[in-house]
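Protocol step 6 of 9: fold each sequence in the batch and record its structure tokens directly after the sequence line. For illustration, a two-sequence batch is reproduced in full.

Sequence one:
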Amino acid sequence: MTRPHIVVIGSSNTDFVVRAANIPSPGETVLGSSFFEAAGGKGANQAVAAARLGAAVTFVGRVGADQLGDRAMAGLQDEGIDTGLVVRDPDEASGVALIVVSDDGENAIAVAPGANSQLLPSDVDAASESIAAADVMLLQLETPMRTVSHAVRVAADAGTPVVLNPAPAAEIDAETLREISVLTPNGGEALKLAGLSGSGLDAWREAARRLRSTGVRRVVITMGSAGVLAVESDGETRIPGRKMEVVDTTAAGDSFNGALAVALAEGAALPEAAVFANRAAALATTKPGTQPSLPTREEVEALG
């Protein structure tokens, strides 16, 4: 099989991770049990996820002209990712994320975007040939919305399918939504984007219905331990969650999105692609860290 080509446009961060018994409440200090540093950022994570699952990946983003940027670039290149379209920003520091992971695997994250906040529509234009040649373009919302919207238009004009992971949740204009092939929010993001409250399967179904009414062709909602809900014109598919020994959930969403993009780029139908992505996400919860926890193709296929 020819390797699918995926263009990922998004953020690159360095994660500073503290493990603690619980995530601190406002005003509370907790003593952590360990600390480590790892490469992260939703865009870079999803690029690495896709590369480890067999795709040829081009990453479009910005990092600072600093040591963190040097390490981020080297890490992406070590994964075989094309970084020729990554801009080294002389004026902004590389992005960082401060993450607390509790003993039950849940997490809380604060991000200082740095150079990610300066990703420009012109940076997307520089990648237009790669976007046109790609099987799928994958985006998130850790870079400026105007740049995300511009990238969606560039891909739509080229006929390249767009997978948008709307994380963190933010308002997306109707024109952009109409050009998205697959929207992949988690449960909370789906409700926020649809203007709903509540939780549970019925609420997520209604959120998917409302999002599709805006023109989004397919909506895939990740529901944590409840699994995945994939909704398209001819119905819905619910994929149950997988019981794993959870260590850290930080990279589960990014693993899911990278895997979904790979499966779709290989020609899989949406339900089949969501099953594959659900396996990848489950495996990512069994190891600490973000990029270090992202599984290989062999691991995903072995999970069955």
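Sequence two, same batch, same settings:
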Amino acid sequence: MSITGKDLIGWGLKPGKWFSEALASGNRALAEGQDMTSVQALVTAMAPPEIRKIPLQSGVPVHMAIEAETPDEEANVASVTESMEALMRTPTIRGGAVMPDACPVGPKGTIPVGGVAAAEGAIHPGMHSADICCSVAISILGDVDPKAVLDAAQRVTHFGGGARREDARVPLPAGLGERFVANPFLLPAKDVAAQHFATQGDGNHFLFVGRLRSTGEVALVTHHGSRKPGAILYKRGKEVAEKLRRLQSPETLKQNAWIPFDTEDGRAYWDALQVIRDWTKANHFAIHDLTQEAVAARARERFWNEHNFVFRRGKMFLHGKGATPAWGDYAEDASGLVLIPLNMAEPVLIARGTDKAEALGFCPHGAGRNYSRSEHMRRMGAETPAERLARETEGIDARFFSGVPDASELPSAYKPAATVVRQIEQFGLAEVVDYVDPYGCIMAGDWLKPFRERRRAKRRVSAAS
């Protein structure tokens, strides 16, 4: 293994007479057993001061496929715009877009939910979020009892923190575990990849049962990401990117650090993302398979799509955070259709993307929020989560796996579904071809509430003594 001038250029370094000495030093370090990240740091430190640091750019335009219709939405759009404009100064970025379901997260300059950023020759771990490959999958089961499907799903799935019990684990598909072992970014996740398989997490992740409006057939839809294996990859990717940011572009915001693709680390990280993608897809359909077996059904059709991921088009790496790829061949297994869930009381949209150029080829991933979870709870006033749940989901079999409703996941916590659907059409982002009308759903619920109550009880006892 050795480095060449092409590697140095890929690291953002400008050619010059200093290249020959840098290559010699770098290759000596490789021969002595240093890893590529350390070698890159060594070589970058040898660059002349005037070319060592990559400055921020003046910024590139952002396509805003969103329109504010209320005071809450005006504040939301203003915050999203401010954050995207700061992000667009990152040296690798060549374009950006914002979807109708956008909402800000994190400090200024952090890619918002519903944001898309196109980077040339670089992968930004902070721009696909810790929930790598958060995605939606559907199995169309035909003429079966929807309650039986929901009951079966509740028995076989797993929501909340942690892994499955050892006696309830589902085997990984053949060869998938070995791919974790073979990739340096994923090796630390090899055990949790098996332990967390066929689990769904918490937050806004769900299992939804409904009927196709077009045929009346029952369909099962799941929404979740890559769980702890993805979180481990995210953490390791951020560490490598941050080490390079400090050397190459210290003005770049920490959350927007990048790994150059044309490097050993860049190629390994890209490969790790593909492994995590395959794990997550298998994770969805493992839960679907367990459910359909329990009701003696067989899916006549199934497909899926991710909306927290990095997609490659030529030299561009398109980072979608809560944004759905809307071009037909974004991946080998792309079906041409995408799923856009709204909230537990609304249909899941089945849509065909339009590959809108201004939107960088993306469409929304869901309904999004106009304000935080805590603000939603504050606005509920004296109304309890159970009361709000009954009022907002009348006629729908809405369940929480933990047995405790999570008020921050009720329909009123999200943007109005009609607004998002209208803006999908207004901005030409996708064409809705069918709907999965809701029968019922399962979410994790407030599974941490018992732990909080136990801590409070211990504090009271301690204070009394």
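Proceed to step 7 once all outputs are recorded. Observation for sequence two: The CA atoms of residues 163 and 196 lie 5 Å apart.
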